[in-house]
UniProtKB/TrEMBL annotation:
<comment type="similarity">
    <text>Belongs to the universal stress protein A family.</text>
</comment>
<feature type="domain" description="UspA">
    <location>
        <begin position="190"/>
        <end position="325"/>
    </location>
</feature>
<dbReference type="InterPro" id="IPR014729">
    <property type="entry name" value="Rossmann-like_a/b/a_fold"/>
</dbReference>
<dbReference type="Pfam" id="PF00582">
    <property type="entry name" value="Usp"/>
</dbReference>
<protein>
    <submittedName>
        <fullName>Universal stress family protein</fullName>
    </submittedName>
</protein>
<dbReference type="InterPro" id="IPR006015">
    <property type="entry name" value="Universal_stress_UspA"/>
</dbReference>
<feature type="region of interest" description="Disordered">
    <location>
        <begin position="151"/>
        <end position="172"/>
    </location>
</feature>
<dbReference type="InterPro" id="IPR006016">
    <property type="entry name" value="UspA"/>
</dbReference>
<feature type="domain" description="UspA">
    <location>
        <begin position="11"/>
        <end position="146"/>
    </location>
</feature>
Length: 330
């Protein structure tokens, strides 16, 4: 049963008293100011159960007052920070599994924000069970704030095995790179969104466009294809390979044009890479202000995001990462 809340469009923040959840809160405060929305702080804890062969019950009542008091203190401290920032706030304490509580709360929220690690509760388990449950089942977009992230942290591009192929400027890099790795792209101050086969129909694209437009940031559409021939099953001709690359570039160009038509003042560009999607996304996060990915798709890397790609991107992303649930057509 969903708890009655003051604002069903609030930004939800999981609080557990850790530095990671504090970083998540500070990011959420900035976003709440920009969107003129309130914040709902949510703390969760579980009551230990005891199973014994000598008794007929699997639950033994315990005094949870100390645990609840600790959660209350964390929420009270967080609420003070939100109020000081001039943002409306409410706080909720729930007894239950962290993943289940957060997913339930997301039914009445516009955005959920959590830290990637903490002392238990949401953040402590996010890269365990919640890493799958949250992107798969959240009813609103979710932003994961990485460990140690801060708005003013200095980040530089790292080496990457993903190779640029085409970009919005008309550059072609297909025959210019011979090294095994190259320095990754610099997306400082920009919002980067991973684009899959959905192209302009991607919910992640439009969430990213709205975010970039609101922030006054540039938006980069990032596409990834794999041209490596791993066996005799696929031995494309030069013409086939060119058509394959052209199709990927066209998909990005069409999506970028659609965004420009809706947000004419937004600076939009795109880049097509050859490599492994998870690696390309993680390297984009080295410098991006926000990385946006879809949780499901019709193929490409988005189709894998509830499996290997999400498992690979979220633990290693160096910037706030927004996961947008993409509903599949039946």
């Amino acid at each position: 049963m969903t708890t009655e809340v003051a604002d069903p469009e609030a930004i939800i923040v999981g609080i557990d008293g850790s530095s990671a959840s504090r970083n998540a809160l500070m990011w959420a405060i900035d976003e709440a100011r920009a969107q003129k929305k309130s914040i709902r702080l949510v703390g969760a804890y579980t009551v230990p159960s005891v199973a014994s062969a000598t008794v007929d019950v699997s639950y033994v009542p315990v005094d949870d007052s100390a645990v609840r008091a600790a959660v209350s203190d964390s929420l009270r401290e967080a609420a003070s920070l939100v109020k000081e920032a001039g943002v409306e706030v409410e706080a909720i304490i729930e007894i239950g599994d962290a993943a289940g509580v957060l997913v339930e709360e997301s039914k009445q929220g516009s955005l959920a924000v959590v830290g990637s690690r903490g002392r238990g509760g949401f953040a402590g388990r996010l890269l365990g069970t919640v890493s799958s449950a949250l992107p798969a089942h959240s009813h609103c977009p979710t932003v994961v704030i990485p460990v140690g992230w801060s708005n003013d942290s200095k980040r530089t591009p790292e080496q990457t095995a993903s190779r640029p192929i085409r970009n919005a400027g008309g550059d072609s890099f297909e025959d210019t790179i011979e090294a095994d790795t190259v320095t990754g792209p610099d997306y400082t101050g920009q919002v980067v969104v991973g684009i899959d086969a959905l192209g302009a129909e991607s919910q992640a694209l439009w969430q990213a466009a709205e975010l970039a437009n609101r922030r006054g940031s540039s938006l980069v559409l990032l596409g990834v294809i794999t041209t490596t021939v791993v066996g005799p099953e696929w031995l494309p001709s030069t013409g086939d390979m060119k058509r394959y690359v052209d199709k990927g570039a066209d998909k990005l160009a069409i999506a970028a044009q659609a965004v420009r038509e809706k947000y004419p003042d937004l600076d939009v560009s795109w880049s097509l890479y050859d490599g492994q999607p998870a690696e390309a996304l993680v390297r984009a996060s080295d410098t991006a202000s926000v990385l946006v990915i879809g949780s499901r798709g019709r193929g490409g890397f988005a189709g894998l995001l509830l499996g290997s790609t999400s498992q690979s991107v979220l633990p290693y992303s160096r910037c706030p990462t927004m996961v947008v649930r993409v509903k599949r057509e039946s």
